[in-house]
Amino acid sequence: MIDLYSMTEEELVALMAELGEPRFRAGQVFSWLSSGTPIAEMTNLSKALREKLSAACTDTLPKVEKKLVSKLDGTVKYLFSLYDGECVESVFMRYKHGNTLCISSQVGCRMGCRFCASTIGGRVRDLLPSELLGQVIAAERDSGERISNIVMMGIGEPLDNYDNVIRFLSLVNKKDGLGIGYRHISLSTCGVVPGIRRLAEEQLPITLSISLHASDDATRSALMPVNNKWPIAELLSACVDYYKKTRRRISFEYTLIAGKNDTEEGARALAALLKNAFRGTDAPLHVNLIRVNAVEETGMKQGSVEGANRFAEILNSLGVVATVRRRLGSDVNAACGQLRRASGGKKNEN
Ligand code: SAH
After folding, report:
1. pLDDT of 14-47, one tens digit each?
2. Most buried among 29, 285, 316, 328, using CB within 10 Å?
């Protein structure tokens, strides 16, 4: 079966030719898909064509399995089930600059970060381009609101599902599709260096976020096994090259974990590390601080707001712009992976 939502308009053109249909049908199908319309309801296509498409293609969208709405800020946490019963999470957030959807890139994750709920059961499979796109379309359909920004910060490591992610980015950006500008898309990685280097070559003006979380290799390797493969120096060198190639600002994520990486010396070391790495470039340095979400199985503890503010102050005083991220949806388990885990992963195992 052809996975309709994964197809580019050019591929749809080829499909129409195969089906003996005129070229303009491809555009019609493509734009129906961006509103999540099932084949059977694509009313400007002939019934015969709809039947041919139904016989040859799948048009399943992620299905809302569970939906938690925050009473604090209206953030919506979705648990979506996929064609095979696997589940992933997406989070819909309302900001002044527009609605943002945080999407998952894999079912589970194999990166093993010690503080993260998504990785506890390992990686089950990669998400297809249709399933990456489908989260956005399904959330728009369910909310009745347009999504203008995407962050790839849900379950999974996007650069461990490279080709599908790149295809998704191109699909979601298309003007006659969802038309979400690259500048409104962020991709977060735990530091898969070859992926960062490949991404630099794509020349997409998206925002790259690096989950750094430590300023020395011993601490980072203890928190993030990926650091054993690509230590900090290699990671930052890839970041510098990425900046030089794309001229796009990189944002560094730093999850503060009590007693692990949150000391004042740690803040000074972080500022020195980034300034050293980017010396000689005009890259603005930006760190997003997040107080860790305590996940029962990980034993990682959250520090105080004051501690986080102090950490930010030190960075700012040393010329590294730092903000403490506002936590949306804290009453709906909005940290990635927690809802999927609570539901036992698969739909039919609930
Ligand atoms: N794999 C990618 C994207 C998914 S995780 C990456 O690692 O960047 C999105 C962000 O949430 C990452 O910065 C990740 O380190 C962070 N994160 C994961 N678990 C967390 C937790 N329990 N508390 C706070 N941040 C967490």
Report:
1. 999 999 999 999 999 999 999 999 999 999 999 9
2. 29
